[in-house]
Design goal:
By secondary structure, this protein is an alpha/beta fold. It is built from 9 helices and 9 strands. The longest helix is centred in the N-terminal third of the chain and has 14 residues. It is globular.
């Protein structure tokens, strides 16, 4: 529900944020981003390519410029923009990233996009309730994770803030916490499986600095 009398500014750029290691980015990332963009009426989706996920091991993590360059290739010819803006801002945790993005981009309305697998462990994230209070969240179903997500500690708290799927395009008028559940035809592709199938996937990617699609700075 929105604030009484509140109206979203139609001039705001409606932007979805999908965070992750993108090690590597793949077709499922692209699919859910484009489907979420359609369901939520987004102008853009930003892939926040993390310098390092605090909840994931560093072993096997490709260098940031490699992951960013590969993500940009996967995002070609779409409203998706792959960015390493967290490195530029110096943020390590999602709660700090979202707060700073809102401060730095007042002409954008942001919604956080996350898979059901992340919702299942959302309560392990730093200040996860504050994340939910910072901007609306859209949770995208993932095969095998729906039941753990529904039974999770975080969902126990967020359940009272769920908004109807039929009102998904109205998210800019919602006062956080606000959660909408989205379900699309599943794509079972995973970065783990791709790395296992091709351990040398980074060998074909240039190791040189890459221009960030959002900050326009070189990432090295």
């Amino acid at each position: 529900m929105g604030c009484p009398g509140h109206r979203a500014d139609p001039a705001l750029i409606r932007t979805g944020l999908l965070g992750g290691s993108f090690n590597p980015a793949h077709g499922a990332h692209r699919q859910i981003s484009l489907m979420a963009a359609k369901a939520l009426g987004l102008d853009e989706v930003w892939w926040l390519v993390s310098p390092g996920n605090p909840l994931k091991p560093k072993a096997g993590m490709a260098p940031l410029p490699v992951r960013l360059r590969y993500a940009q290739r996967m995002a070609q010819r779409s409203p998706i923009r792959a960015t390493a803006i967290e490195q530029h801002m110096g943020t390590r945790y999602t709660v700090d990233t979202l707060r700073m993005l809102k401060q730095r981009h007042p002409k954008r309305a942001f919604i956080w996009l996350m898979g059901a697998d992340n919702l299942a462990q959302f309560s392990d994230w730093k200040d996860w309730r504050q994340i939910a209070k910072t901007m609306p969240i859209a949770v995208i179903a993932r095969p095998g994770y729906d039941a753990p997500a529904r039974a999770s500690r975080a969902m126990g708290w967020l359940r009272g803030f769920v908004r109807p799927r039929s009102a998904a395009t109205m998210w800019t008028m919602w006062r956080p916490p606000a959660l909408v559940l989205l379900r699309f035809r599943p794509d079972k592709t995973s970065a783990t499986a791709l790395r296992r199938a091709d351990p040398a996937w980074t060998s074909a990617i240039p190791q040189t600095p890459v221009r960030d699609a959002v900050t326009h700075r070189l990432v090295d």
